[in-house]
Amino acid sequence: MMVAVARTSQMSVEEFETIASTAPETVTLEFIDGRIGVKKAADGDRGTVVAWLTRRCLRTRPDLDLYYGRGLRVEADREGRARPDAVLAPEAHFAGQGEWADPGGALMVVEVTSYDSDTDRRDRHEKPTVYGQSGIPLYLLIDRDSCTVTVHSGPDRQIGGYRTVQIAKFGEKVALPEPMGIELDTEILKNYVR
Q1: Phi, psi for 82 (deg, rounded to 5)
Q2: Which of 83, 90, 113, 138 is most open to solvent, judged by the fewest CB atoms within 10 Å of its CB?
Q3: CATH 3.90.850.10 fits 42-192, yes or no
Q4: What backbone torsions phi and psi does residue 109 show, to the nearest 5 degrees?
Q5: pTM (predicted TM-score)
Q6: What is the pLDDT of residues 14-62, one digit of tens each?
């Protein structure tokens, strides 16, 4: 018989924000499911992937902005803090908001896997749950380990996560459903893996 164990938070969200505000620019901290995590700095290939995606999205949707490392208040109760590699939102959507913005209005969050030990837990399991709980319409995971692009859509705030998950191998075309409504040719992503 399996028994559910409630996880105790390592600290309050206020304590996390104090720590995160004093961290050097070379360190990116996140607070998900009551645990502090360190996000590895982007390598050149990871940054290039985000730049590639930026060009594709903004060429098709010039009414949008793509924000790099935008801090978001996530989870159902907004007690989590995440810094996706990119957030796509209407132009000037986050103007006037502080370091940790409400995700309402964000159309898509993007993560590009890094080559660190907790990528599996963080990007493939925790992030789809907290982004779905937050109501963000799309979560795009560019997974350099498995050479796949995963599109999560149809957020479900009740169960957390997304109702629809589409996976494509690098080299295939992948459709980003509404609110994006664009198609990506992922052939070039083969160049940005180890």
Answers
A1: -130, 150
A2: 90
A3: no
A4: -110, 150
A5: 0.90
A6: 999 999 999 888 888 889 988 888 887 778 898 999 999 999 999 999 9
